[in-house]
Design brief:
single chain; about 325 residues; alpha/beta; 8-stranded parallel β-barrel; 3-stranded antiparallel β-sheet; 15 strands; about 20% strand; globular; binds guanosine-5'-monophosphate
């Protein structure tokens, strides 16, 4: 799809404000910022990325492998609770790890993240997290249909549902399982379902260029989560590799064999790898990419007469196309 331009009274991109203020269904925290989130992958959900993104009021979902000690060190340097999320899985150990972090670190956001948000344990775990921390902004996922979005909001008591199965740049779920949903259709359906019951959504995965991000917001996403496009910079961990004079950095799916070996020392035989390793062209400081995305979004707004991100969906008319580019 593309977004149709409309008559506009916004004559300059500088008139567009990308900060949005959001109130949530359960949490009493009022959040203000640019609703873009770096993915909680170990290549993008890092303290270094947080330091770069917080300057632009953007959020970093920190990956779940940071220890309490890592958080303590970071806290000494200064952590703004508005702009980072603590991630967790749904096992008992994960809950204990989360509890230990939250007992010492001031944090607003919890991101409960599993690859398959359809398993029934997720809703139960979310409800337990809500009972334990009634005030936090709780996100959970991933799912791609309205029924599960409403279950998570109404019974799991989460504020924000994360949407996306299969669109990720380092993801092979669609190939390995045949399961998935086209991301734009998923966002259209899930935004409607979430907003109908007072919830919000994050569109997670599949962003390849600033235009994709505009379309995610246009389809109703309240937040957009980005992995691959925020990788390959100075701030991202990992070695630089050089091939034929070109520089690359490694980026890999969190369910890839590479990540499994790194964090668990092995890959269990009963599972297959649903992620891959890709080489991302080295792109210098993350700020370059951030400015490219923010500039693109501001320009989208001037084309469709939206003064802020909140107005993008109501100003968006999609047109189905065969080719995005000439
Ligand atoms: P990207 O912005 O790179 O297109 O997508 C990032 C998203 O891909 C992440 O936020 C996460 O939801 C998803 N993802 C990360 N690692 C894996 C993986 O190994 N397998 C699958 N299926 N998805 C992944």
């Amino acid at each position: 799809v593309l977004i149709k331009p409309k008559r506009s009274t916004i004559n300059s991109r500088s008139k567009v404000d990308l900060n949005r203020e959001i109130r949530f269904k359960y949490s009493t925290i009022k959040w203000k910022g640019v609703p873009i989130i770096a993915a909680n992958m170990d290549t993008t959900g890092t303290f270094e990325v947080y330091n770069a993104l917080k300057e632009y009021n953007m959020i970093t979902a920190l990956h779940k492998f940071y220890s309490l000690e890592d958080y303590r060190k970071m806290l000494e340097k200064g952590l703004d609770p508005n702009y980072y999320m603590v991630s967790t899985g749904i096992g008992q150990q994960s809950f204990e790890h989360l509890s230990s972090i939250l007992s010492e670190i001031p944090c607003y956001w919890i991101c409960i993240d599993i690859a398959n948000g359809y398993i029934s344990d997720l809703v139960d775990f979310c409800a337990k997290v809500r009972e334990t921390w009634p005030d936090k902004i709780i996100c959970a996922g991933n799912v791609v249909s309205g029924d599960m979005v409403q279950d998570l909001v109404l019974y799991g008591k989460v504020d924000v549902v994360k949407i996306g199965i299969g669109p990720g740049s380092a993801c092979t779920t669609r190939l390995k399982t045949g399961v998935g949903m086209p991301q734009l259709s998923a966002v259209l359906e899930c935004a409607d379902a979430a907003h109908g019951v007072g919830g919000h959504i994050i569109s997670d995965g599949g962003i390849t260029c600033p235009g994709d991000m505009a379309k995610a917001f246009g389809a109703g996403a309240d937040f957009v989560m980005v992995g691959g496009q925020f990788a390959g910079h100075d701030e991202n961990p990992g070695e630089m590799v050089e091939e034929n004079g070109e520089k690359f950095k490694l980026f890999y799916g969190m369910s890839s064999e590479h990540a499994m070996n790194k964090h668990y020392g092995k890959m269990e035989k009963y599972r297959s790898s649903e992620g891959r390793v890709i080489k991302i062209k080295y792109r210098g400081p993350l700020e370059n990419t951030v400015l490219d995305y923010l500039g693109g979004l501001r320009s989208t707004c001037t084309y469709i007469n939206a003064t802020c991100i909140k107005h993008i969906p109501k100003c968006t008319t999609f047109v189905r196309v065969n080719n995005q580019l000439n």
